[in-house]
Amino acid sequence: MSSQSTPDHLIKEAQTIHPVIDLIRRRWSPRSFSERMLDEERLNTLFEAASWAASSGNEQPWQYVYAFRGTEGFSKLWHCLDDGNRPWTFKASVLIASVKRTIIERNQKVNAWASHDVGMANAHMFLQAVSMGFYCHPMAGFYPDKLRETLGLDEFQEPVCMIAVGYLDDPDKLDEPNRTKEITPRTRKGIDTFARKIT
Description:
The protein is of the alpha+beta class. Helix content is about 30%, strand content about 15%.
């Protein structure tokens, strides 16, 4: 199914049981990205959205390292991805490494909530992107040690995920199994499997 005939956000739009805001229903993680480039201003808007995420003690332990397609930096980040993600990410407009600071700046103690807080910041970015007509795809499929070496991270910086960012393209341009993944409706566990009321 082509994105020219049916918008991809309709293919992947969440069919929720309970009402949620449109941005949540429309957010998904595409693999087919177009040649259209994001500009620095739009990318900075994503980072601005991330900056307003909640964090323990307002520590804001998130850090982002990014590069635009066609640059040496993009190639460096791309080579940190595993074989499952390289075939489709090369067309992304931007690659981002999401990193957490593992210690609290004011007292140098371990920040036990850093991963949670970075996840909050990432989620803000993803929803902001949808509101602007493009998408983010977070990835666990990368080599943390290689990324750490490539970016020169210190002992208190730890990679959390990598993120491909861009505008949607036709799913038919993907090889299998990625094409099938792109056009398969999304599903989620029912809330009764993870939410429990106590009295």
